[in-house]
Amino acid sequence: MEIVLSGCLNRCGLRPYYSREEKQLSCENMEKMGISHLSKRCYRELSGGQQQRVLLARALCAAGSMLLLDEPVSGLDPKATAEMYELIRKLNEEGITIIMISHDIGAAVNYASHILHMGNPYFFGTKDEYLESSIGKAYSSRDGGKEA
Questions:
Q1: d(CA 122, CA 89)
Q2: Which of 51, 58, 106, 140 could form a disulfide with 148 if both were Cys (CB 3.0 to 4.6 A apart)?
Q3: At 129, is the pLDDT very low, low, confident or very high (cuts 50, 70, 90)?
């Protein structure tokens, strides 16, 4: 709970305590991430997936309408990875803009609405435009033509 609540620190200003609204926001974000039952647990004792959910809940407390995620599923097992991507998708559907950096092109194609491919050549466009582009076709053929 303390880690999630720390996402509200910038809202406190010079105030040395968290307001009722900030505490409520942290509880709501823990509920969104499905980790309310972990509120009294030590962060170090949590699994990798649970830790990622705690950090995402904290980011939601700090952020308003946009999240920048750098490899949010790094080190997670396949089940936790799928759950994390599903949580991120739901947040996006709720109106939060998600900018995600990933080396997993299959996941990007599966979950993103737009793709910025940093390579030679560069590409920016919708997921469908990416799949039709020469660079998108080259990467999808490397993966056996499978989409994630």
A1: 25
A2: 106
A3: very high
Structure tokens at 12: 């406190």
Average pLDDT over residues 127-147: 76
Q: What's the token pair of residue 4?
A: 């999630």
Strands 123-126 and 66-70: unpaired
97-101 and 66-70: which strand pairing?
Answer: parallel
- The DSSP-derived string for 58-88 is HHHHH-SSEEEEESTTTT--HHHHHHHHHHH
d(CA 31, CA 38): 10
Which backbone phi and psi does 103 adopt, to 5 degrees?
-95, -5
Exposed / middle / buried, residue 106 (Cβ in 10 Å: 0-12, 13-18, 19+): middle
